[in-house]
Amino acid sequence: MKHYLGIIGCGGMGQYHFMTAPKSQGLEVAAVYDIRPERVKALESETVKGYYDLDSFLEDPKVDIVVTAVPNNFHKDYAIKALRAGKNVVLEKPATLNAPELAEVMAVAKECGKLLTVHQNRRWDKDFQMVKQTIEEGALGKVYDIESLIHGMNGKFLEWRAKAENGGGSLLDWAPHLIDQVLWLTEEKVVSVYANLFHVLGQEVDDYFKVILKFASGAIATVEVGTLCLVKQPRWIVHGTKGSMEIEDFGAKIGEIVLDKEHLAEWSEKIIVTDRGPTRTMAPRPKETLEFRTLPDVSDKTDVTEFYTNVMAAIDGEADLLVTPEQVYRIMQIIDVAKESDRLGQSIAVDL
């Protein structure tokens, strides 16, 4: 069955949906709306109707799916209006400013009997899929530490992302994706959240954050994003009882998996002098006791067009929704707790 997408907001992300959504077979962009007429004019064509007021856009009978590609503080209101107009809704991330707002949208979607989902497109990222597959295969053993790091160098937000009233800042910009990825790496519950939000350059919004999630087993995941970090760090570092892995960046062209091939059960009585000083515990491992593996091939798991393909199949009753509102509500709850942890300066126990 053919489906038709309407895009609210023709800025950066709106243009992204405009270009990529039609790559999903059976989906066509039918309409666009923006408060800036010049942006609408840039995208309208013989096949794409440009609208200059929201009500007319929502009345378009052809459009059955609407995506909200607007500043974060407008997500809730636009989504509710679209749902009440009989449209299925794709929320850009973050779904809303907080969990209570998302709960409002979820209630309206249920009331109207329409599909609601969130564009968690980074579930298809190559680097993430490599980590996920390696953990699922059990190569690393029982994972006890995950670090998901993104460090930029420019130290500045553009346009509305620099405004607190619009829900700008690094936490709402990146945590919805990175926390979603971490939660997909384990079925465990989160039992505590600790967070620090920084205003490194004195900006109106946070430009650096560190969130530490503790899981029921005691394992932890650190999610960290900075905008003014001039020394590069890896994108991922994962440690388990059988080995570790590292991925340098999103391209995932550099990285490795190092496994404990022959565990050193006994130490020599001889103290070894290293760059770390005299030590045995921290002495370098003999290479023959380690196994080095390349990063796995995940080319069959990185097709982001699967997102919209699944949305259409779910609307047609042919598949379960991959990104459910309930999953995203959990993410938003964790982000809300992270904000409170930063405010209080302490870890907060949770049952999420």
Nutshell version of this structure?
The protein is α/β, with parallel strands linked by helices and 352 residues long. The chain contains 9 helices and 17 strands. The relative contact order is 0.15.
Give keywords.
single chain; about 350 residues; alpha/beta; six-stranded parallel sheet; 9 helices; 17 strands; elongated
Describe the secondary-structure layout.
Layout: E1 3-8, H1 12-20, E2 27-33, H2 37-43, E3 49-51, H3 54-58, E4 65-68, H4 75-84, E5 88-91, H5 99-112, E6 116-118, H6 126-136, E7 143-151, H7 170-183, E8 190-198, E9 208-215, E10 220-226, E11 236-240, E12 243-247, E13 255-260, E14 272-274, E15 277-279, E16 290-293, H8 306-315, H9 325-344, E17 348-349
Parallel strand pairs: 1-2, 1-4, 2-3, 4-5, 5-6, 7-10
Antiparallel strand pairs: 7-11, 8-9, 8-17, 9-10, 11-12, 12-13, 13-16, 14-15
Helix pairs in contact: 4-5, 5-9, 7-9
